[in-house]
Amino acid sequence: MNNDIIARRAVTVADVARAAQVSKATAARALGGYGSVSAAVTQRVLETARRLDYRPNELARTMATGRSGTIGVIIGDIENPFFGLAVRGISDLAAEAGFDVILSNSSETLAAEQSATRVFLTKRVDGLIVAPATMHDGAHLKDALAQGCPLVLLDRDVPGLPVDVAFIDDQAAAREATDLLLASGHRRLAYITATSASDTRYYGSEQIALTTVQNRIAGFLEAATAAGLTESERQIRLGASTTTRSQAILLELLRQPDRPTAVLSSDSKIALEVFRAARALGLRVPQDLSLITFDDADWTSAVSPTVTVVSQPSYQLGHTAARMLIDRISGDTVAPRRCVLETALINRESVSVWPALHVKNRL
Amino acid sequence: MNNDIIARRAVTVADVARAAQVSKATAARALGGYGSVSAAVTQRVLETARRLDYRPNELARTMATGRSGTIGVIIGDIENPFFGLAVRGISDLAAEAGFDVILSNSSETLAAEQSATRVFLTKRVDGLIVAPATMHDGAHLKDALAQGCPLVLLDRDVPGLPVDVAFIDDQAAAREATDLLLASGHRRLAYITATSASDTRYYGSEQIALTTVQNRIAGFLEAATAAGLTESERQIRLGASTTTRSQAILLELLRQPDRPTAVLSSDSKIALEVFRAARALGLRVPQDLSLITFDDADWTSAVSPTVTVVSQPSYQLGHTAARMLIDRISGDTVAPRRCVLETALINRESVSVWPALHVKNRL
After folding, report:
1. How does the average pLDDT of chain B come out, rounded?
2. What domains does chain B contain, in order, with CATH numbers?
3. CB B1 to CB A137 under 8 A?
């Protein structure tokens, strides 16, 4: 099928230089992303390289630039669509810049993330993008920095770590979503997250290992408090990380005498479980239960009713993280940057005015 | 949070040996997976290692065994839930056996797969699991084998490549699903796949680069022919790889004067687009359009109607591929194995009897 391409002599930097009408040294600089080349020339060289299907020779590149041309990415959960889209954003930018991407899935555990960091350092990646499984232990990430490996955090921060971060304003996004539920008349609101903790009940932010979740809960509580609600902490649930756990949490939550009438879900996997659990309990969305979730996952606009979401710029987060990392790999030494990208509340059909008529208040 | 673990002295092979009450040499053999150790002792040593949170020293292990303890996995599409679950299966088995997993996403392109193979060989992985983007070019995979890197194919075969394969019987699975549609009275059936081709129309199996898709189409056509249908090839569509392309294909297909009354979808991403397109056209599932899809993705049982699926053992496919690879890494030299795992047709609500009453036959 592609034998014609394979059989062809490999395209060299000299070929690219000739076709782009620049010197070989200029082409090498543009392709390697080092030294001084104008943006226009860089663009011309990269386009020519793409057109000719130029593939850098790994060994030659490592010798010329001291780099292997590889970025290591550690994601939290390969089964969460948020990360699938973020990885596409990383990979697209990396490919443009001539870097290969290798991935590791931490399953949101610190041990796996530490192991992956060690593996990537052993494999001599040029830089790391990490969605850290916990904000409470960054020793392995500090080690990577100490070894000279550039690092960018994706989605989550590790306070005290002097690195670039690409994330959203989780607190403002959660506050905006909660405000929509409050404006619709809801007074008993639940917040559900997959983040692990020793208990499914919430006692305070020190239980939480992810800055995203801490900030979302802060936004949820801030909105609730501003609306005069005083016991909203009691309706926060942690550890909805598997179908079984999510279902147990939801059944417990929705079978309370004063059950929540609206749920804010921390990711789209949980929202799908809310959807199922509501059906299993005979609760209609949105008449009996309103729902908003973080992440505009594909299915949220295919189910009936469609689900109101906080859309995160997942692709752009990945793209931005990769951009910052490649800047660092190229020698950029500006102070750590904190890139906050915009979210959008997409109002669909899963939020209804409360109290509704003919509603199931108790189960 | 985990500072107590971090601060502890690293657990050594000697510690594991002492706790498991075996000699250090025996513990090293069991942990390294080499030499002769009984199954019972191996199990005791591995359990002890797990309990003590033993982490092998990378350098020491490479020196002792010639291995780096890393498996490279190249998946087709990180955004397809099939691969998310397969990677979990691979990772669980690999972790048990003391291997780290690093991933690469080919986006179903040969060039990216070739690049990833080269990167993984440069990074000296101990073995490769690949879901090949095409059956027509295995030169890079043959190279890997020639360099002594064990290889297992996941989900798809490359004819002529003498390696282990973990897959399903795609032809039988597609035939069974098609038979269900035929038994419900449908006579105009469509098959839609994401696999790329120069045209969205189907002219013959030589257009198709994936054995899975070739075999599924063969099963689809076999069932249709056995039922006396003669023009089913005309209702096969290729290249539904993005939302935009899927929608264009579906609109064209469903706006035909003799539109299909049932669709068999090659993966769950396409099925979601069928669901959306049907709604956009005002077609009700299943009254106006029946649907079966490969892959029991989460959302298929949450939408209304729930979707009838061919459930693939994705997790088990990954697990089996990893098992075979680690056998090979450990020196297993039996002839290449072809592991065919069972699928299950899960009959839900998206298939209706045809012709139905009050149906939209034309748009």
Report:
1. 89
2. 3-56 (1.10.260.40), 69-168+314-342 (3.40.50.2300), 170-312+345-362 (3.40.50.2300)
3. yes
